[in-house]
Amino acid sequence: xxxxxxxxxxxxxxxxxxxxxxxxxxxxxxxxxxxxxxxxxxxxxxxxxxxxxxxxxxxxxxxxxxxxxxxxxxxxxxxxxxxxxxxxxxxxxxxxxxxxxxxxxxxxxxxxxxxxxxxxxxxxxxxxxxxxxxxxxxxxxxxxxxxxxxxxxxxxxxxxxxxxxxxxxxxxxxxxxxxxxxxxxxxxxxxxxxxxxxxxxxxxxxxxxxxxxxxxxxxxxxxxxxxxxxxxxxxxxxxxxxxxxxxxxxxxx
Length: 253
Description:
Blueprint lengths: L1 H21 L2 H21 L10 H31 L1 H6 L6 H28 L8 H28 L3 H6 L1 H6 L15 H8 L2 H14 L6 H28 L1
Helix pairs in contact: 1-5, 2-3, 2-5, 3-5, 3-6, 3-10, 5-6, 6-10, 6-11, 10-11
């Protein structure tokens, strides 16, 4: 049964990846927004923002990486919505394949597509002056956190992808996720914010994730932020996965 699941998921993932590769404009669209924000904040606002010693691009890149992921997962919801409306799910139900494999194929495709987008954004950041003395282990830790964050947001994307009534509705859920880093430590220190805003910023998931990635890049001790970041990511992932599977079972029942 396990071999059956992995085999079916592999075939379905290859199918979804082919669709992404045939429409490379989705990758381009995903990276345009974060790259534009990076250019604007570094070259327009950067000189007026006091984020402490060091280059501003080094300070704000972790937030841009999270925005890149939030932009990318909207296409996961779109692809799922398109499959639902095309009747492909009903066709798969009549075939001897593992039913969860259909969803996992979209999830793995999301991870692959977002990985490409993140590499592109980091490449542009390097051209803009981003530098890190982080070693292999620190980069692997950053990659692991970004992967876990992508996985959590992707399962959130599955829910509107299955249940939305329109293309616009399927993708609209990502807008709050894209703007969440702006009310965090991603672009300015939270100590500069007024009381209620600061309280929210310091206790929402993006701040702990951004602080952890920033410390890893700078080779500073990560402290307790890494455990808070992991707890947020795992918690969101578990809740989103459970709700997504409930919606999926209702849709294919």
